[in-house]
Amino acid sequence: MDRLVRACYKKKSGYAFAKKAEDIAREYGMDHIARLASNENPDSLSPAALKAAEDALRTVNRYPDERANILMNALRAHYGDYHFVTGVGMDGVIETIVRTLVEPGEKVAISTPTFSFYTLAAMGQGAEVITIPREADFSVDPQKLIRAAKDAKITVLCSPNNPTGNATGPEVVREILEGIEGLLFLDNAYVEFSGIDYLPLMKKHENLVLGRTFSKVHSLAGLRIGYAFSPRWLPPWYQRAGTPFTVNSVSMAAAAAALSDTAHAERYIAQVRRWRKRFMEEVKYPVLSSDANFVMVDVSPHKSDAMVEELARKGVVVRSCRSFTGLEDHYVRVSIGDDWENERFVQVINSL
Predict the structure, then answer these.
(1) CA triplet 320, 324, 329: central angle to 5 degrees?
(2) Residue range 205-251, pLDDT digits in tens
(3) Which pLDDT does position 29 carry in this prediction?
(4) From residue 226, how far is each of 14, 84, 143, 349 by CA, in Å?
(5) Are 91 and 207 part of one and the same domain?
(6) What CA–CA distance (Å, rounded) separates 311 from 244?
(7) What is the count of structural domains for the chain?
(8) Considering 260, 293, 323, which residue would you say is the last residue of a domain?
(9) Judgement on whether residues 75 and 187 belong to the same structural domain of the protein
(10) 1 band by pLDDT with thresholds 50, 70 and 90
(11) Is 51 a member of any domain?
(12) Domain that residue 14 falls in
């Protein structure tokens, strides 16, 4: 019956997951694994978010608020008078925006190498995917991107970029916004670690969406909740195209409470900045400068998968970058974890 499956999914593999820490622990007989593969916050969620989630559990016999008002109000209280949309993680926001705007056969332009789900979401809508390779240093040439994306319905740019870690400055983003005809989806999943503020662009450009997530700085990866700053015209159509009751009550309550606990977020941001610097100074392989909560390491002459396997044997889980389209097969991505995890990574990779 696989003849019923759409051809686009037969031609391209799905999202490539990192190897599970639990599987590695079982395979090599270890109890303590450094989990540095998935860009997660190693800290538990804040006490305020935990209390809000526990309270919300008492109401899960009812459907959640379809307009996510508790979260919308918290976002406006935290950021100011902007328009927002929400989804099941950033992935859900991306998927719904593509569903809302893109007709089958229309173009979606993607700056690569980057997060693979953009392509999967576009394929799911029957879009024609156009990839625009970054420069040798992984920067974005705005004019090259504009030429390739001129007639695209949506252009996707990740900043700071996954997996390379580098950010694209607001002045370059502004040039892109003014040069393209369609919507720019700027994935800001890691922006809190960069110190860059893209929000002033929202006031001047009606073709910009800034995607955000609670998975990273707010420690809510398991609750799968994302949101985006949206132009005024988009939310009514987004809601019409979206899946009913998408964001659950527990996730909404925890996310709303997490926004108010700035000390929790600031602790991890400080941890990230400190360890990014240490990785660049102490790891014997070249570590690329990063604005995110991870770094990309050039492990040549080793291959990505081989290095990941060697580190796993020593109890350290990192992400192979082999599956990222357009990226040479000698990079690994390393998240910033707890001190002991980071120290073990430095010790192990330097010993190989």
Answers:
(1) 55
(2) 999 999 999 999 999 999 999 999 999 999 999 999 999 999 999 99
(3) 64
(4) 21, 10, 30, 34
(5) yes
(6) 43
(7) 2
(8) 260
(9) yes
(10) confident
(11) no
(12) 2-44+263-351
